[in-house]
Amino acid sequence: MKKKCILPVVLLLLLSVVVAPAFTDVNAYAGSLEDAISATPQGTDPGQLDPNAKPGFLGIPGAPSPNLIAGFFWAIWVGWIFSTVGAFGGIMSGVGHITVFGLADYGKGFKQTSPMLNKLITDSIRVSNQWMVGLSGAVSSWNYYKMGRLVLPLGLMLAIGSISGSFLIPVITAGKISLKAYLGYFGLVVFVIGGFLFYETTPKGQAGKKEAKAAAKAFEDSHMKGGSKVDEAEQGVKVKSWGFKRITFTFYGVEFGFNPIVPIIGGFLIAALASFLGVGGGFLFVPFLTSVAGLPMFLVAGTSALTVLVGMIISIFTYMVVKGVPVFWPLIGVELIGIFVGSMIGPRTSKYIPDIWLKRLFVVLAVYVGLRYTTKGFLGYSIVPPF
């Protein structure tokens, strides 16, 4: 009973921090936004603001007005994909905010005429992505924990390392990076990671993953091949020992172990890069958990979600409270409802998808998103649709 209370208490404490920015005095954000708007040339030409135009994103005159219905359904997709593979929540949130709603192209229009407004829009996109991933991480973590598919000590070690990285990067980079550079590096990192995960789906890449393959087979036999019905929580993750040098646990009868120092270091490096890009970091935690920790994909999504949640909470708090970055609450509010729906569905459908196909789904998304934003950021146009 005591063990079952650990994660709920952790989630409540973390969520109390992430909710704080929503109740912070909006006037704290208004200053920087008003300064950026007032410093922007007025007019109807590109790179100018028409004071008579209808307010849109962030209340900026003439800015795009995101369709809230589209935002809701897009958020369901984001919640499902993140809770299914433990990654691409932030990236898919970025696709919506940057491409579907046209916020990136709009922000780039002020690069020369109003750098302050350009960078404020960039930071707002980053933290908006993180709100969506943060909620999905909370919902997914709780669902996977109840199903016995979350490695709590491993997730906590990664989270400990991610705290400093999630705090440090927003302080250093907020308001100091151009939107074009953000798009280019965003895509480049994703593309490289996709290639790495593709290697893991090959026979050679799978050869050294004996424990993961055995655990995945046992799980698939129980849920996909007509085996006798099993108690997921009973067969799920069971921590056998805690130590400074090694922590061990079992999953469907297969034993795994890891040195806690390794995920702490990995968590710091991954969270720092994820916070810089304005995404959740799952696309980096997934290869870490499959390659370094040697886990099957059935354990990856829940463990990644918990780790990403901690990083998102720290990063959101830093952006909004420390740096005063605003978000567009009408859109975020609707998206969070959709995120909740998608994140409830994902853990329940992922157990029917074979381990190798979960990785292939990751690879397909990585290749598309990597190509889209690498070329958009560095060449100025995308070689894949939408152009």
TrEMBL record:
| Compartments, record wording | Cell membrane; Membrane
Q: What are the TM regions of this chain, as residue ranges?
A: 74-104, 150-169, 181-199, 261-286, 298-321, 327-345, 357-375
Keyword list (alphabetical) reads:
Cell membrane, Membrane, Signal, Transmembrane, Transmembrane helix
Q: Which InterPro entries match?
A: TM_pro_TauE-like, TSUP/Inactive_protease-like
Q: List the membrane topology term(s).
A: Multi-pass membrane protein
Domain of life where this protein originates? Bacteria
| Chief localisation class | membrane
Q: Which Pfam families match?
A: TauE
- Give the signal peptide, or none: 1-22
Gene Ontology cellular component list: plasma membrane
Q: What family is this protein classified in?
A: Belongs to the 4-toluene sulfonate uptake permease (TSUP) (TC 2.A.102) family.
The protein's name: Probable membrane transporter protein
Q: What is the source species?
A: Desulfosarcina ovata subsp. ovata
